[in-house]
Design goal:
- The protein contains eleven helices and twelve strands.
- The chain has a twelve-stranded mixed β-sheet.
- The chain has a single domain, classed as TIM Barrel.
- With 338 residues, it is α/β, with parallel strands linked by helices.
- The protein is globular, with a radius of gyration of 19 Å.
- It binds iron/sulfur cluster.
- The site of iron/sulfur cluster has 12 residues, from helix 10.
Length: 338
């Protein structure tokens, strides 16, 4: 299937596909899925609407034919989807796919880590926003403590995922007082903490610029305790900027979508659990690929449709954020898969 690798209107290649396998989650983190919005009556996607593993794999093959080499499995909480190792094994067999990663809240990971690894998963990123049970419990909206997440990190390391990465979303006045404690806890352990600026994803998390602690302040606070040196990205378009501890105790990452945007080399596409292609984390609408799959479209027609969508892409929300006079409609991050 010889379809030229598409570039978008800003010359950006299509290299990374984030696949949301469910819009459901067993936590209610306020910056992503606030409990007051995603309550007991919230209408999640019905089963029939969600792509099957065969359909996801077909789409992944089409994306791979266009140059995608990296997949990230997300949700909601992806480990809620039954038999996820089966999907990993199917994606592992897709020609051209070099790396498969997973983003999880970790609660179900200890029981599944070995099967996921055996199926071909390469990397794991776990969310941990605080080391304090009360703060973490408030932030995850379910009162879940830190211990189960520490168990997940241990299980991931024992299973051989390396480096295990941790995502900490930093909110001013909520958990920013823990930046140094989080850095200290994981120095010298091989675990890489990524400090993430609080983002205006979706329209339900009550985002305000005042609640954002800029990446440069996060860096300055850590650097004051443990001098940091800049490190080269692992690959072009890597989301996090990398910083090594000068004393050799490992590295951290910082994701600065608000104050130091990186749209210029954004090579990420997102596939919702319902089979829509989103060309930006902050997009309001996606392009329906499920209909093409379910109407018996060939692999070539799928790839052509995806290429046409990507060629027309001009997203750069983060660069335009400040210019937005009023809030713009956006799909929820828990729906897009972050
Ligand atoms: S705002 Fe959109 S275009 Fe910019 S880096 Fe994020 S996902 Fe990419």
């Amino acid at each position: 299937m010889a379809i030229p690798t598409p570039t978008d209107t800003r010359g950006r290649h299509l290299r990374d596909l984030r696949i949301s396998v469910t819009d459901r989650c067993n936590l209610r983190c306020g910056y992503c899925m606030p409990a007051e919005v995603f309550g007991p009556d919230y209408k999640f996607l019905p089963k029939a609407d969600i792509l099957s593993y065969e359909e996801i794999t077909r789409l992944a093959r089409a994306f791979a034919a266009l140059g995608v080499t990296k997949l990230r499995i997300t949700g909601g909480e992806p480990l809620l989807r039954r038999d996820l190792p089966q999907l990993i094994a199917q994606l592992r067999a897709v020609q051209g796919i070099e790396d498969i990663a997973l983003t999880t809240n970790g609660l179900l990971l200890p029981a599944m880590a070995r099967d996921l690894k055996a199926a071909g998963l390469n990397r794991v990123t776990i969310s941990l926003d605080s080391l304090d049970d009360a703060t973490f419990g408030r932030m995850n909206g379910k009162g879940v403590g830190v211990a189960p997440i520490l168990k997940a990190v241990e299980a991931a390391q024992q299973t051989g995922f390396a480096p295990v990465k941790l995502n900490m979303v930093v909110q001013r006045g909520v958990n920013d007082h823990e930046i140094e404690a989080m850095a200290l806890r994981w120095r010298g352990t091989g675990v890489v903490v990524r400090f993430i600026e609080f983002m205006d994803v979706g329209t339900t998390n009550g985002w305000r610029m005042d609640d954002v602690l800029p990446a440069r302040e996060i860096m300055a606070r850590i650097n004051a305790r443990w001098p940091l040196q800049s490190a080269d990205p692992n690959y072009p378009g890597e989301v996090a900027s990398r910083w090594r501890y000068a004393d050799g105790a490992g590295e951290i990452g910082v994701i600065s979508s608000v104050t130091n945007t990186f749209c210029g080399d954004c090579t990420r596409a997102r596939l919702s659990a319902r089979g829509e292609l989103f060309t930006c984390l902050f997009a309001a609408k996606g392009h329906d690929l499920r209909a093409l799959v379910r109407n018996g479209g060939s692999d070539e027609s799928l790839a052509k449709a995806i290429a046409a969508i990507w060629r027309a892409r001009d997203d750069r929300y983060s660069e335009l954020r400040a210019a937005n006079a009023s809030p713009v409609p956006k799909a929820e991050m828990s729906y897009l898969g972050g």
